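Comment thread on ticket #2218

A.B. wrote:
> Attaching the input chain for the structure job we discussed in standup.
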Amino acid sequence: MTHGLTHLLGIAPLSAAEITMILDLADSYVDLNRSPVKRSEALAGRTQINMFFENSTRTLVSFEVAGKRLGADVINMAMQTSSIKKGETLVDTALTLNAMHPDLLVVRHPHSGAVDLLAQKVNCAVLNAGDGRHEHPTQALLDALTIRRTKKRISGLTVAICGDIAHSRVARSNLILLKKMGNDVRLVGPPTLIPPGLDAEIHHDMATGLKGADVVMMLRLQKERMDGGFIPSEREYYYRFGLDAAKLANAKPDAIVMHPAPMNRGVEIDGDVADDLTRSVIQEQVEMGVAVRMAAMDLLMQGRADTRGVMV
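C.D. wrote:
> Ran it. Output below, let me know if you need it in another format.
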């Protein structure tokens, strides 16, 4: 499979064809992950280092499972106790790791652009597991795979992304991907949580924002990234923007409900809606996450071989 993917730093640089290629390969890994022997040798002999400068149990475990199922040697670096805490810069850390000849770095960082900087300093593939408010490409890809498998297509849909848009790299990556694939995207939330200049319909009312939607994507209220009074109170926020059965009734009868997790039940989503297996695909998102990350890492290794003519 010839292509030019050597890093995965965001959705923005990807073409619709490249997005489709990743989703198609991920589909095959869903089947592998559901089989009794969940093992591929696609990354056999390769070294994958997971560097998480922000805590995220779900994403870290997903990448670890993905790497091990591909046959990679997987190392999780505890960045909270690393030399970064002793004053070492990100670039120095990158150069140190580069000298060990890893094949793939999976990096989550609290600052936008940090992963791109690191990618410029190393010889191996770099995969962005979330950087600041910038992007979270594999989350958007796993969401797309979940939508495509549920709705049988990933174009021509109306998708409402609701909640804390301002602090969400998930919203940014999803907006870019869904627009690239030919969908109508609405952003729904209070004015304080929707930044200006985004290429989407803006709604400040859940009833109008969800009207006729095929997909309702809820976002976590990211209080740890807020440095001011963005909402009056969690109770008021839930009353106006929390997804419950009454608000969901504005969407299409077969609309699916998504959430990147972890969920704040009773803040951005009602527990009964989150657990409604006829509407909620939140658990499917978790399953698709492993498959998408397997596909992305597999393609990155193929891409580096394709561009250099030899395995690196």
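A.B. wrote:
> Thanks. Noting for the ticket: The radius of gyration is 19 Å.
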